[in-house]
What we know:
Blueprint: E1 10-15, E2 19-24, E3 31-34, E4 43-44, E5 50-52, E6 58-59, E7 72-76, E8 81-91, E9 94-104, E10 107-110, H1 111-118, E11 127-128, E12 131-132, H2 133-136, E13 143-144, H3 156-160, H4 163-166, E14 173-175, E15 178-189, E16 202-217, E17 236-237, E18 246-254
Parallel strand pairs: 6-13, 10-17
Antiparallel strand pairs: 1-2, 2-3, 3-7, 4-5, 8-9, 9-15, 10-14, 11-12, 15-16, 16-18
Amino acid sequence: VEELAPGIESIGRGTTWAAELRIQEGYPYMGVWGEDYIRENYELAEDGSIARNDGQVVVGADGNPTRTGQRVFLGSAIADYTGGLRNTFSWKGITAGVLIDFQEGGVIHSTSNQWAQYSGMTPNTVFQDGIDIRQEGYIVPGVTEAGTPNTTPIDAQTYFQGSNFWTVASTNLYDASFIKLREITLSYQLPNSLLNSTPFTDVTLGVFGRNLSILSSDLPYLDPQMVTSSGNDQGLENAQVPSTRSIGFNIGLKF
C-alpha cells in the first residue's frame, strides 16, 4: 500500500488475541501483524519498526525465546494466485468429472491451533523429535545470545501456557497455500432403448461429492479457507467450525 488518505497510516480489518489484520501504509495489502521472536539478524529501522527478523530464534538464559515486544508485519493474507483444474471423461453413457483447486501464497494465523496447544491437545505438546517433553522438558530450537545452540530445557506446560508462546503470533502463523480435491462427479445416461415406453427422452442418474479432501496444506487440523471473514479480509482463523464434506445424488429427466 503506497499511500492512504492524509493523516491515516493504517486501517484495522480484524483482530484476535495475538494477531491483527491491517492495511498499513508502506506494507503489502492486508498484512497480518503480531509479535514475533527476536532472531539472529534482528535489526530496528529508524522509525523503531522491525527491519529484519530472520535466522534462528535467540533464546534467553532461562530457556525462553526472546520477543520483539511490539507487533510486526508477518506477511500478507492475500494469495499470490489461485486456480483449478477440471477433467471430464465420458465413455458409453458414463461421465466422470474431477475438480482440483489450489491457492499459492498468503499467510494465516490460527487461533484454534493456538488454544489447542495452550490446552495440551496437540501431539507437539507431548512429544518433540521422539522425546517426551512432559518428562524431559522442552528445548526451544534456537541459539543463545552468544550464538551457541540452546540446550536449556523449560517445563513444557509452562512454555505452552506462557505469554512467550500464545501471545506471540508467529508461533501459530502458517502458509495459506493448499491443494484440494474439490469435487468428484459420476453420472450414467440410460440408453434410449430403455426409454421407448416412457415419456422421457433422456434420463441421467448421478452421484457427487464436494469438498472431499485437502491434499496439501501447511495448516494442521483445519481447512485453510475457514477464516473469520470473507472477501479480502483473509488471514485470521478464529476458532472456526470445521468444514464439511457433502455427498449426494441427482436425477436428470428430459421430456
